Amino acid sequence: MDSRHLFASMPTQCRAFEFMKYRLGDFPNAEYIGNNGLHIGVHQDLDRDALDYFIKVVEDFLCSG
């Protein structure tokens, strides 16, 4: 299972949007979610075993702390 910053969700988090002149702090709630949110990717070919594995890993993580 992988963990990484997958994509920038706000103009303040992606250099491609620099022309819009937004600054960090212009969208505090959205920036927080962009930095700390959990994106759960899905794919139409995931089978029951893959979904069960994902659920187990998340449950183990949440119960470990």
Explain briefly what this protein structure is.
The chain is mainly α and 65 residues long. Helix content is 38%, strand content 0%.
Describe the structure.
The protein is mainly alpha-helical and 65 residues long. It has one domain (11-63). Helix content is 38%, strand content 0%. The chain contains 2 helices and no strands. The protein has helices at 28-36, 48-63. The longest helix is centred in the C-terminal third of the chain and has 16 residues, at 48-63.
Characteristic key phrases:
single chain; 2 helices
Secondary structure layout:
Layout: H1 28-36, H2 48-63
| Broad structural category | mainly alpha
pLDDT < 50 stretches: none
Order of helices and strands: HH
Q: How many E strands? A: 0
Helix content: 25-40%
Shape: elongated
What do the pLDDT scores average to? 84
Through-space gap between termini: 19 Å
Please outline the major beta sheet: none
How many helices? The count is 2
Radius of gyration: 16 Å
What amount of the residues lies in strands?
under 5%
